[in-house]
Amino acid sequence: MVFNFDQVHNYFERLVFEDVARKSEAYPDFTMDMLGDVACVALNRLPARYVRHDVDMMFYLTEQERHAIELSMDEALQFAFGFVQERAVKTAR
User: Fold this and answer.
1) What residue spans define the domains of the chain?
2) Which of 35, 51, 73, 87 is the most exposed place for a label (fewest CB within 10 A)?
3) How far apart are the first and last CA of the chain?
4) Burial of 33 (0-12, 13-18, 19+ CB in 10 A)
């Protein structure tokens, strides 16, 4: 039997990548590598939620759970941008 796992992914990946790209305008000194680091730090602070289809996850969430996800993503990204920025400053010294 052949299995196809191409659709399986972490639900937060696309959301984090899009938010990093959107918020990167506020960090013009960040390189592409630094933005990749931001995405990694943020994703490591979020729970792994593997799905085949994003719509499946959204369908089964309550409004309260959706709000909690938004808050946790905002916190993770805020931390990640600060963490990477702080490390870049220390490295530059």
Assistant:
1) 9-92
2) 87
3) 56
4) exposed
Place of tokens 């390189």: 31
> pLDDT, tens digit, for every residue of 48-74?
999 988 887 888 889 999 999 999 999
pTM: 0.88
- Residues linked to residue 51 through DSSP beta bridges, in sequence order: 9
Q: What is the largest CA-CA distance in the chain?
A: 56
Helix (H) or strand (E) holding 61: none
Residues 30, 38: contact at Cβ < 8 Å?
A: yes
